[in-house]
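TL;DR need structure tokens for one chain.
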Amino acid sequence: VDLSELADVNFETDSTRLVPSSQRYLKRLARALADNRHLFDKLQVVGHADQRGPESYNQKLSERRALSITNSLVMAGVSKS
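>> reply
TL;DR here they are.
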């Protein structure tokens, strides 16, 4: 993973379930982060949803997606702090 070019992480429609290619990407990203701990003080994870549905629902989905990414990275060995 080239840390200068972070990729989009995608989910199944209306879900926090990562698509397989994004699962693989996050595993590679976690390894790269572990190998380059000296380069990172913090990593910001931001979730997004499309325009379909009510704004309040999409906000909560976005937050759950960000948490899903964070949990995936933590499970792969990245420190949550």
